[in-house]
Amino acid sequence: MGSPLHEFKKQASFFLKEKIKTARLILTDVTPAELLTEEATNNGNLDTSIMGVISRAAFEVDDYWRIVEILHKRLSKFDRETWRASYNALVLLEHLLTHGPQRVAEEFASDKNVIEDMKNFQYFDDKGFNWGLSAKKLSERILRLIEDETFLKEEKARARKLTREIKGFGSFNQSSSIHGTFKDSFRPYGTCNSQYNADIGQQEIELLALNQAFTVEKGVHSELEKQVKDPKSWLKKSESSVNAIEEDHPFCNDHEHDATSSLLSN
């Protein structure tokens, strides 16, 4: 339990950030998808559901250009001190390549040098996780998706197949045998030491992830729309909501530098 002063500072900070979001949505031409992309690649809150929302928004022409511009900037600013935003951009880019518009591969061919450079990144966090190896594996896969048209088509077809299967399979419940078998296996990119070696059961794992994405996507869209239409209600956050945003995430170590500045203002 934090001190009252700490709790007050935390709530004040959260309130200020929410006011800034509201102002940007109302007073500028920023779209909810654009803001979501900026925040997701900035602070590490990238999960399957958020990437699903962004990849679907990318099929809209205006949102597409806004999303790819943010990713281009994140990748171009990669360095050893502020690497997280670029790593997050890689994670989202891989998802866009397999779930987004066909033109994404051609769009990011110009970033191949920076992606190649990220293969040489080395960093172990205080828990011993090898982020460098994770970045290397992810970079290699992205480069292959960009350069190998046949491989890209195969992976996009595989993603579509999984999407159709999850639509037909329906909702998983807590007593599902598949859920019980794989709930401890699924992790988002860069949160475990598997390093893409969990080939057995990979399809089932992805089915669980996609199911989660479809389940929450409508809620995310609805929340974004409410934020634009009724900004006052958006600012009325309870203390429990404030506490809920503080997660034990490896991207949130205090000693690391965060890419907290807005790219949309550049």
Automatic annotation (TrEMBL):
<dbReference type="Pfam" id="PF01417">
    <property type="entry name" value="ENTH"/>
</dbReference>
<keyword id="KW-0333">Golgi apparatus</keyword>
<keyword id="KW-0968">Cytoplasmic vesicle</keyword>
<dbReference type="GO" id="GO:0030125">
    <property type="term" value="C:clathrin vesicle coat"/>
</dbReference>
<dbReference type="GO" id="GO:0005794">
    <property type="term" value="C:Golgi apparatus"/>
</dbReference>
<dbReference type="GO" id="GO:0005543">
    <property type="term" value="F:phospholipid binding"/>
</dbReference>
<dbReference type="GO" id="GO:0006897">
    <property type="term" value="P:endocytosis"/>
</dbReference>
<dbReference type="GO" id="GO:0030276">
    <property type="term" value="F:clathrin binding"/>
</dbReference>
<dbReference type="InterPro" id="IPR013809">
    <property type="entry name" value="ENTH"/>
</dbReference>
<feature type="compositionally biased region" description="Basic and acidic residues">
    <location>
        <begin position="246"/>
        <end position="259"/>
    </location>
</feature>
<feature type="region of interest" description="Disordered">
    <location>
        <begin position="246"/>
        <end position="266"/>
    </location>
</feature>
<dbReference type="GO" id="GO:0005886">
    <property type="term" value="C:plasma membrane"/>
</dbReference>
<feature type="domain" description="ENTH">
    <location>
        <begin position="18"/>
        <end position="156"/>
    </location>
</feature>
<dbReference type="GO" id="GO:0005768">
    <property type="term" value="C:endosome"/>
</dbReference>
<protein>
    <submittedName>
        <fullName>ENTH domain-containing protein</fullName>
    </submittedName>
</protein>
<dbReference type="InterPro" id="IPR008942">
    <property type="entry name" value="ENTH_VHS"/>
</dbReference>
